[in-house]
Amino acid sequence: MFRSPKAMPAAALLCLLLLAAVVPGFVRSVRAATLSAPSAAAVEQLPRADDAGGAQTGVPDFELETVKGTKLRLSSLRGRVALLDFFSATCQHCQKHAPFIAGLAKRYRDKGLVVVNMASNNQFVEGDKVESYIREAGIDNEVVWSPLELFKLYIAPNAEGVVGVPYSILFGADGRVVARFSSFEAIDQPKIEQAIAKAVASGK
Fold it and tell me: CA spacing 20 to 30 A to 102: which of 62, 96, 112, 144?
C-alpha cells in the first residue's frame, strides 16, 4: 500500500489545487518549448550533498519519500544521467504521457538512465490514485512525493507565466540540465528519446 506523507501547508495546497483543478492537466499550449534551452527562471542543476541548503545550486538537498515508504535524496542522482518527471495522478495529460516515460525508463536503464517520477504531494491526490497511475502506466522505477517547492524551482513557466505538468527534465551526469520537455505528443517523442540516447551515450 502506498502512503502519502503529511499534508502541505494550506497556502501551498491552495496554489497546487488551483493549478491542478482550474487548469486541467496544467496544460501547456506551446509545443515548440518541448526541447527548450535551460531557462534562467528555473533551477539548472541537481542539489549537492555538500550544499544541503542550496546556496550554490539554488535548490536544497531534499530527502524525498517514495510511494513505497523508503527515502531518496536528490543529490544521490548526481553522477548519473537522470530524468525527473513531474506529474499529477489526476491529470489526464500526465496519464497519457506516463507509459511513454515508463518505456524510456526500461529501455535506457541498462545504459545508465535513472528515471524518478515526481508525484505532486497534496491532500487532493490520494495514494490509491497514484498507485493506479503507476500500475496503468507500467512504471517500475522510483516514484517520490514531491513538495510544491520543487515544482516551482524546477519547472520553467511558459510565456504566459504558467507552470504546468507533465514536465520532464533531463540531467547529465554532472548534475546539470541537458533538456526540458513540456510536450509529449507522438510527434515530439522521437526528439525526446534522441536527447536521452545522446545523454546516456556521452555519459556526461
Answer: 62
